[in-house]
Amino acid sequence: MHDDLGGNSMSDLSVETEAVRAFAATNAGISGDLAGAGNFDAVKNVAALVPVFGLIGADYLAMFAAAQVLQAKDINDLSAKYAKLSESAFSAAAAYDATDWSNAGALGAIGNQIGGAV
Fold first, then answer.
1. How far apart are the C-alpha atoms of 32 and 59, rounded to whole Å?
2. Considering Cα of 106, then 112, then 116, then 117, what sign does the dihedral take?
3. How many helices (H) and strands (E) does the chain have?
4. Does any domain span residue 3?
5. How far apart are CA 99 and CA 19, in angstroms?
6. What GO terms in the biological process aspect are recorded for it (predicted)?
7. What global pTM score does this model have?
8. How many domains does the chain have?
9. H or E element at residue 72
């Protein structure tokens, strides 16, 4: 079945909310792992290299330090994206469940009004 815009109808949509929650939990774990990887001590890493490179390598060390800071920022940004994905999936699962329960209650009430056993 297609709608007027050529897309598929979602009238037969079925969502396994426990699977959505498992997806959310997995992404929360990935977010935590990434956050741990992104929380390295860039200053300590660069400071350890100063005796090796000295004044001659100061320009290199400055660029290396900047790269370390950007890498940590990028890793933490990616971690935040996984955290948001997890949060959104948990919210979607809750919304699907709430809608199903609400619709089931409404249908049960209608069934009781017309004398059917639900």
1. 34
2. positive
3. 3, 0
4. no
5. 17
6. protein secretion
7. 0.73
8. 1
9. helix 58-113
